[in-house]
Design goal:
Blueprint (H helix, E strand, L loop, with lengths): L1 H38 L8 H34 L2 H7 L4 H43 L11 E4 L4 E9 L4 E10 L3 E12 L9 E13 L6 E11 L16 H5 L4 H27 L8 H27 L14 H31 L1
Helix pairs in contact: 1-2, 1-4, 2-4, 2-6, 2-7, 4-6, 6-7, 6-8
Length: about 375
């Protein structure tokens, strides 16, 4: 149908442009974070580009429905603002026809989101964790920059080296601070060497010719120790072989009876439903008279958008905690948006019936 193709083309243009802009913004933000981590030595610089790509792929399951929702608001809202919707209505094109055209496009986007959520998302998470673990496991002198403070491990270790000699495989003028619950440990040494990762996934740093201090925050029980050689074992790193729910394939989650696994599985299944619902909601939320303020319409539309995601997040948390049964599970989150869509679609019809009844009563009175 010509009208449906016209409506679709009006939506696709802002959708493509908006998705490109949002993706570019997300990539820029992710690049800033990852480059900062690489500069501090937390991850290897060679994996930054791969991590940015994987994070962007993960974010697409949210960026696509969000962009589609905004594109429909923009496109249909423009038709109302330029009185094109009034002309279409006069030509016999109903809002149901507009909803049908939008629904076809939304269905395609929902299918794309389903592929992202069911397959691409766990794949991207698995590769992200693998790259991060590989970067941590290969933590060596090449990750440490002389004259800068570097976070080491996950236990609050901060390391500083005046010189880094990669050829001699050692650091010189080394300072390490470790924060504990009641004490701070400070180590100052002439030289230090990082040992390789052991079978348990942890590593150690050996210090030579220095002092170790234990500083008591609550009293005066400080300890000063002189050493020739001192070995500290850094906290065990999380390994990629560890069970990570977001990286588990969908088929494995389907057979689990754990509440958190069920919540993750249902989240992946219902993300396409959220895409479709948001797109359909955007049509009646775009209604406006030519002179009506767009800010009020946009505010109401954003409230509906937040309703969908906040409701799904709240129900997901309840499902993870075992507060609600697996069925209906996350489907409960989509009852309010479905009810809102039905109400918005029925409102004009009810108003027409009301005005028709008033008109008939006036005619009978005459």
């Amino acid at each position: 149908m010509l009208i449906e193709r016209y409506i679709t083309s009006e939506i696709v243009r802002p959708f493509a442009a908006g998705l490109a802009i949002l993706a570019a913004v997300f990539i820029a933000f992710s690049a800033a974070v990852k480059l900062s981590d690489a500069a501090s030595g937390e991850i290897a610089g060679r994996v930054v580009a791969q991590l940015i790509f994987l994070n962007t792929l993960i974010a697409m399951e949210v960026l696509v429905p969000t962009t589609l929702f905004l594109a429909i608001l923009f496109a249909i809202g423009r038709l109302y603002r330029d009185s094109e919707m009034a002309a279409l209505s006069a030509a016999g094109v109903s809002e149901a026809s507009i909803l049908r055209a939008v629904g076809k496009l939304a269905l395609l986007c929902a299918m794309a989101v389903a592929l992202l959520s069911l397959f691409a998302r766990p794949w991207a998470y698995a590769h992200t964790y693998a790259l991060e673990q590989q970067s941590i496991s290969r933590f060596d002198l090449s990750n440490i920059r002389a004259g800068t403070f570097t976070d080491v491990g996950n236990g609050g270790y901060v390391l500083y080296a005046r010189e880094v000699d990669v050829i001699a495989d050692e650091m010189r003028g080394v300072f390490v601070q470790v924060e504990r619950e009641q004490r701070s440990q400070v180590i100052s040494a002439e030289r230090a060497r990082i040992h390789g990762v052991d079978e348990e996934g942890s590593r150690a740093v050996e210090f030579f010719d220095g002092h170790a201090y234990l500083l008591d925050r609550g009293g005066s029980r400080d300890v000063d120790m002189r050493f020739n050689s001192f070995l500290i074992r850094l906290p065990e790193e999380e390994r990629i072989s560890k069970f990570r729910r977001k990286a588990v394939d969908t088929g494995t989650l389907r057979g689990s009876d754990q509440p958190k696994d069920i919540a993750e599985y249902q989240w992946r299944l219902t993300t396409p439903l959220a895409t479709l619902l948001l797109a359909l909601l955007a049509v009646p939320l775009s209604r406006a008279s030519p002179r009506q303020s767009r800010s009020s319409i946009f505010a109401i539309a954003m409230a509906a958008y937040l309703l969908v995601f906040f409701a799904s997040g709240a129900v997901r948390n309840a499902l993870e905690n075992g507060d609600i049964p697996p069925f209906p599970g996350l489907l409960l989150a989509y009852l309010p948006p479905v009810a809102l869509l039905a109400l918005l679609m029925l409102t004009p019809r009810l108003q027409r019936r009301r005005w028709q009844k008033i008109y008939n009563n006036e005619q009978e009175a005459r």
